[in-house]
Design goal:
mainly alpha, two-stranded parallel ribbon, single chain
């Protein structure tokens, strides 16, 4: 919870500090991949650390991090700012069917944030995945794609 508080309530307001922290992560991912992955998941739920230990998940995430940080940490800085500030529109105006998924042991996104988001979206369904962490999609991607395909057919 401290990392969530730090990332979403404090660090985004300190642009140079955020950029410096993510710059350290960028260097670790580029030059010492194992250390970078440790930094990324040291505070993660056990289920997420176990997922990252799988070559299909960990290898894919490492490649994604390396590409995302290839030229700078700017994309991640922008992500943190977007996720931690108001979006500039009334989310209650989003009237399409939507679904919010959250793992009950996610250490990156507070479960209460997902619940709050689902409550604000008029046609949202909240799906809580018991015992799943932040990387729940690696085990549930077929469900997500099926739901999206069904919405596209509507």
């Amino acid at each position: 919870r401290f990392i969530q508080w730090l990332a979403f309530r404090v660090v985004h307001r300190l642009g140079p500090v955020l950029a410096a922290l993510l710059g350290v992560f960028r260097q670790a991912i580029r030059h010492w991949p194992a250390a970078g992955m440790w930094i990324a998941f040291v505070a993660a739920a056990r289920v997420d650390r176990e997922a990252v230990a799988r070559p299909d998940v960990g290898g894919g995430l490492l490649a994604t991090f390396q590409e995302g940080f290839r030229t700078s940490a700017g994309g991640m800085v922008a992500d943190v700012r977007i996720f931690s500030t108001r979006w500039g529109f009334d989310i209650a105006g989003v009237t399409v069917p939507s679904r919010v998924w959250i793992g009950t042991v996610d250490t990156n996104v507070p479960v209460q944030a997902a619940i709050g988001l689902a409550r604000q979206l008029p046609r949202a369904e909240l799906v809580t995945l018991a015992g799943e962490g932040h990387l729940w999609v690696f085990e549930h991607h077929d469900e997500v794609l099926a739901w999206l395909e069904a919405r596209a057919a509507d």
